[in-house]
Structure formats: structure tokens, C-alpha cells
Amino acid sequence: MSLDVDYYELLQVDRTADEKTLKTSYRRLAMECHPDRNPGCDKSEAKFKAISEAYDVLKDPQKRAAYDRFGKAAFENGGMGGGQGGAGFGDFSDIFESFFGDAFGGRQRGPARGADLRYDLEISLDEAFHGKEAEITIDVASACGTCEGSGATPGSGKRRCNLCGGHGKVRAQQGFFVVERTCPTCHGRGEVIEDPCKVCRGEGRVDERKTISVTIPPGVDEGTRIRVAGRGEAGPNGAAAGDLYIFIHMSRHKVFEREGTTLFCRAPISFTTASLGGEIRIPGLDGAEHIIIVPEGIQSGKQLRQRGAGMPVLQGRGRGDMVVQIDVETPTRLTARQKELLREFRETETGAESPQSAGFFDKLKGIWDELTD
Predict the structure, then answer these.
(1) Under a CB-based contact definition with an 8 Å cutoff, are residues 245 and 225 in contact?
(2) What's the pLDDT band for 111 if we cut at 50, 70, 90?
(3) 147 a known binding residue?
(4) Does 33 show up as a binding residue in the annotation?
(5) Which domain holds residue 165?
(6) Per the domain annotation, does 35 fall within a domain?
């Protein structure tokens, strides 16, 4: 099982983004995480390599078209050289036929590989933090158990196709041209089943409902794609199965919001704590209680950062940070004694205690004086 992130998501652009938008987003992200600006940071170096690979593919129209249709599978096993400095097609006829059909010929091939499947899985932020073993149920075409995927009744066999002579292709004269097409009798396999299996009717596969266990690693995020090799649909007549792709979606958390590996939350504090300083305790997703030191005189909107208290780094080491935004709460239910103390405090105010408000009203007074002169 392998895991990768969509190239468009890496570059933070829509799938319809034009060349200029791609370039602008790539330059911005590359500048942010370039190794020279983040010396010694393995995370930044890995992200720089990933976005460079994504941009190398999407800036090239041919590579982008192949990626849009096949995903990263277009560049595996000798395909187009995504991220490798522009290596060409590993097998040009494969891609050419996938876009234009068989009309221009091509080598004989066996049964087509089974289709890939997609499954959307929603998990909580806590599950994304710790990882989990998930069981998913899918309806999938699986290899027929009666004929073991061959499509032939047990004990019977296959014979060479009489129409194409076992080549899988037939030729026809059209004016000055000779056009080669897939054989309509054997569908390109070169063989014909003499006695088709009664269960799968010669297809070699039947529809089944399967439950599959999948490991969700710690640190996954919205849009993360997990590939489970060989768990897609079985190919016809014993061909290889496709892959299963699981796309992760995050449910909303009651307290925390997430941006990459950083966790954000808002913490209301009393105006006395804001004035005199103190500490607040935030329970983290790791089960620990994180003590946040509040400096005296803090203002609403100020953010306090707790290093290493955020989300795990996906397929890496370490954790991000927790950022707590302070909201100073004005008291609404005061006792008579508390009101008396506040009045005493107000009588001792000089304006130096709240320089921002004093400065603001000084500016307003200056504007008024200008208008009335």
C-alpha cells in the first residue's frame, strides 16, 4: 500500500488552472519551502521536492493530459517521466492507443487490466492524529471462483481464434490504406473459449461485496489518497486486478481547526488574566494537558504558539505546532463589590494603562479640532 497527494492539491490550484496560475502558485510555494530558506528542515525539503515534481508534470500539456486520465499510474513502470527532467513515453503506442483507439495498430495484448476503484472515507481529527485500522465494504467485480477467472468451464479449454489466427488483430483494405483493428471475435485476446463458464458466462469475474481492512497512517489530511494495490476490479479472463484508491475526508472538530500540521483553537480568558498574566491549560489530541503561558497585558486576537503540540508529520518524524488565539472576555455578571472595585480602578486611570485607546481618542480629537478651526 502506498500513499500520495494529488498534484493539483499540492500546488493549491483547481484542476482547470491555466499555465500562468500554475506557475504563480508554484513559485510562491517553492519560495516558502526552498531548502535554502529552511536549512536543516527535512519537512520543507520533502515538500519542495513534491511540488517540483507536481509542477514538472502539470506544466507539460502531454504529461498533464496523461495525469488527468490515469493519475500517477501514467508515470509508473516505464511511463512518462514525471518529475525526472522530462523523459519521454516509455511505450508511445500504449498512450497513443489509449487516446485514439486501435485504428493505427499496435502489438497484440492479453486481457485488459481491471478497473481502478475509488472510495471516499470520512474520519475524525482524532483518528487522523492517531491513525486507525478501517474496514470498508465495497461492491466489486472479483475473479470467478468456479472457473478461477479463466472464463472457461472447468475441464474445458481455449482454442485459437479462427478469424484472426491468434493475432488478436484483423486487417481490412480501405482505399489506399490497410487498417488494422481489434478482432471482433476474440476481442484482441487471440483465443476463444470453447465452453464458457455457466457462473460468469465466460467473463471470468462475478460481482461481489467485499470487506477490506485498510491502515490509515497518522497525519493524513483532507484529500490524502491511499492506494491499495490489486484491490480494484478483477480483469476479464484472469487479467490483473486494478487498484483501490481511498480518498480521505475530515469531519469538523469541536475545538480545533487544522492547517497542515498546525492545530488552531480559540481560548477566551478573563480580563484580569489578560491584565495580570497567568496560564491556561489546553487538552491536546495526544491526551496531554498543554500549559500555555499568558503574558500580562495580552490583547484579544494575539496568538500563542506551543511547539510540537500539533498534528504528526505524515510519513515522517515530529509534529507541528498548536496555535491558541486569545479572546479577552468582558465580564457581564458583576457583584456590587466587583463594580465598586472597578470604579475605584477607573478613578485612578491615567490613560497610560491603555495606550491604544488613549491614542485613538487623541487622533479623533485632533481631527475634530482641524474641522472646527
Answers:
(1) yes
(2) low
(3) yes
(4) no
(5) 158-193
(6) no
